[in-house]
Amino acid sequence: MKTYRLGLDLGSTAAKAALIDESGVLLGTRLDTSGKSPADAAQILAAALLADYGLTGENAAVKTVATGYGRSLAGTAAGANIRAVTEITCHARGVRHLHPDATGILDIGGQDAKAIRLDADGTVADFAMNDRCAAGTGRFLEVAASRHGLTVAELSAFCGDEPGLGEGVEPFEISSTCVVFAESELISLNARGMRPAEALRAVHRAIARRTALLLKQANVGEPLYFTGGVARNETLRKAVADACGMELRRADHAQFTGAIGAALLA
Ligand code: ADP
């Protein structure tokens, strides 16, 4: 009987699963954004991903590690207890597996942001985290997108990059540490006649400024890789690179690096 390793990243916004074979090759991933409980998301994702490869508890041994916000509530998978490992450790493991040169990681998810510095051997040397303030996370991008009738996946294309559009416009600062007040700042920009694409670019710049501070706090340098669902937003990737003055590369399988790291640690 072959052994497979399953990683579950039970995030605050999305649940992710990754399956690897005995030799560490990534077979596949799955994502669920439906807001189920961590235990339900773990069961459903594990069953679906194993079924994609014809695997059951009877024809394969599956070792599972869970990470993310809901990791300690994951329960069991394929009849076995799921071990819990912190997100920082899992992201570090996943990113170094995909990008062996990485010494810095920026992870922005739905409700938190983390800057992680790695030693030459891939162990975590330091990290800084913002999990208090939604204004620097994917949550704020979700609020800003929906206010303009967009999904987060549409944001970056909508922002475009027409140079000069923002000239003569005061740069928008999020002065509030609360997403509700930050949203009202955005509303007042719209009321002052700022074009939606420019207001949304300003939101990205504001998040990028906060992110640059987080990277500085943990003294994170290059080669630097961007992970988490928000790494799929190209406008934010460019804005963060500008704000911190470093090259910021989007990690492969960016939203799944925590799940991949968990699978590798299983
Ligand atoms: P968590 O692990 O905290 O649940 P994720 O790392 O899965 O969060 O990221 C979720 C966030 O990713 C959402 O809040 C959203 O802002 C962003 N996101 C998800 N899909 C996309 C996409 N296609 N394009 C841009 N941003 C996205």
Strand and helix map with partners:
Layout: E1 2-10, E2 15-20, E3 26-32, H1 38-52, E4 60-67, E5 76-77, E6 80-81, E7 83-84, H2 87-98, E8 104-108, E9 113-118, E10 124-130, H3 138-147, H4 152-159, H5 179-191, H6 196-217, E11 224-227, H7 234-244, E12 248-250, H8 257-265
Helix pairs in contact: 2-8, 3-5, 6-7
The structure holds adenosine-5'-diphosphate (ADP).
The site of adenosine-5'-diphosphate has 20 residues, from helix 3 and helix 4.
Overall mean confidence score, pLDDT: 89
Biggest sheet: strands, sense, closure? 5 strands, mixed
| Distinct bound molecules | adenosine-5'-diphosphate
What is the global morphology? globular
Structural class: alpha/beta
How many beta-strand runs?
12
The neighbouring-strand order within the major sheet is 3-2-1-4-7
Topology order in helix (H) and strand (E) letters: EEEHEEEEHEEEHHHHEHEH
> pLDDT below 50 for ≥5 consecutive residues: which ranges?
none
Helix count equals: 8
Beta-strand fraction estimate: 15-25%
What attributes characterize this protein structure?
266 residues; 5-stranded mixed β-sheet; 12 strands; alpha/beta; binds adenosine-5'-diphosphate
